[in-house]
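User: Hey, my collaborator sent me this sequence without any context and asked if I could get a structure. I don't really work with proteins. Can you help?
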Amino acid sequence: MWVTIDREGQLPLTRQIYAQIRQMILNGDLESGHKLPSTRKLSSELSVSRNTIIEAYSQLIAEGYLETYEGSGTVVSEGLRALDVVKPPDLSPPSKKNETPAKRIIDFRTGVPALEFFPRKEWGNLCREICGKIPASRFGYCEASGVWELREAIAQYLHRARGLSCSPAQIIITSGSTQGLSIVSHALKDSRKVVLVENPSHKGLRKVITMAGCSVEGAFVDDKGLRTELLE
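Assistant: No problem. I've predicted the 3D structure and written it out in structure-token form, which is a compact way to encode the shape of the chain:
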């Protein structure tokens, strides 16, 4: 099986391998019942980690392109037919001809940190260390409010850094600020009252509040924030 990878490309190696195997199946180059190389063998041939091959195979299995049989390895699933015309995936990076030099770009998007400075190596080492220590039960579902140990750590931090005295039971872990605002909006909504938000403000914030059934009105701001003297 001939698979090529581009280590300088923008697509992750797992995605490149997945896309090429999938295309060979759709083209009919790999017929039903064809046995694929073991993950160990293919990782050695391509000089990539075995986890990369396992992840690519797993995605193909999940989508029904491959099947695994104990003692027989991984084979192309039965009942698949080749497409008459299949456009191969474009694995080449987009043209940079008209791109503005990076040093001249100022990114004003919110919620996107300086990703190039993320300590990936340290993060990966910590993940491997922690995953090797915690029991299997921790990979299942936790309380709806979040992992207790995390809530304990947050409570301790708030007491130490902010002087707030609260228990872990009073802390709820959310998937982000949007879910947190949604929970607060539903908990405090009152059809007889109006929610004041800074004007201007993020439209996503207003949408979350209105979807909870609240009425929203804008409140003027200045360089110091909300102008409270204008409130009734």
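In plain terms: The mean pLDDT is 84. You can pass these tokens on to your collaborator as they are.
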